[in-house]
Amino acid sequence: MRITAFEVFYFQLPLQKELKIHGQVISRREGLIIELKNAEGATGCGEISPLPGLSRESLSSAKQQILKLQKFLIDQEISNHFEQLNGKFEQWLGPYKLAPSVRYGLEMAVLNLIANTKHLNLQQLISQFKHDRVPVCALVSSLPKDIPQEVEKLVEQGFRTLKLKVGQHSIEEDIQTVQKINAIIENKALLRLDANQQWNVNKAVTFGNEIGCAAVEYIEEPFADKTQFDEFFMKTTIPIALDESLQEVEFKEVKSFSSVDVLVLKPLVLGGIERTWSWMKQAKQFGLATVISSSFETGLGITALANLAGGSHVVHPAGLDTLKWFK
Description:
With 327 residues, this protein is of the alpha/beta class. The chain has two domains: 3-126, Enolase-like, domain 1, CATH 3.30.390.10; 138-325, TIM Barrel, CATH 3.20.20. The chain is built from twelve helices and ten strands. It has a seven-stranded parallel beta sheet. A three-stranded antiparallel beta sheet has the order 1-2-3. It is globular, with a radius of gyration of 20 Å. The chain starts with a strand and ends in a 17-residue tail after the last helix. 42% of the residues are buried. The model has no long low-confidence stretch (mean pLDDT 95).
């Protein structure tokens, strides 16, 4: 298949309210949309939108990379078998040493191009597993005083999994908030917590013991020191999920953490769909659950993530409830 056209477009979308990520505050989402076309007349689009506070590359550096690559890829023949996600993308793109968001956006565009050429959606292209629906984990985003009302509304809407960020307020306030949520969702829904490494092990244990684990499915990244994961689990019995740590480790290290049950996979920061798929396959072999999660992408990125989640052998509620942040 030959790429006959390669366009790059800039976008900027305002958010409903400010978004705080690891000390960075953003009020709009910026990025690039790339559009590929082939000789058959098919089109494939991808999104490159590094997230400040989470991505290591800037939008400026990502733009420089994709514009350089644009010159090389026009009129280039590419494999029709990238959908196998078995290392062909790495063979092709590895030498360019692309930033994670650039690699992700280009892989998305190429796979969408192949899928559209074959009149398939992305899930049908890459996976033998067919799931018509992907359950979504609702992101609780209200101020603490308004959270009970929001949680009641989300449960009424049919959400069976909720996610709450903790570690941004005092530990006492977080404990009270989680206890209130547990009382509302008991026997109705599960609660995922995300601490973004804001605590040390002692604070995390205090938190875990106070909230109880009845409705808590897991907690993401309670603290940075992975050598203390087992201590936390033994004292609280709350399973641990890894998220941002996956940028720094390989799977062989992850499988050594016996208290880690879940991997939260964000292709935008992991470095592409193929790498994410590899994590999913390895996790399956070792009995770890995987949750596909967004990095506040646009609808284009969310659609790709939903298709990726739907292609998994077991679909866990995906972290895709982020479009509501956009105006």
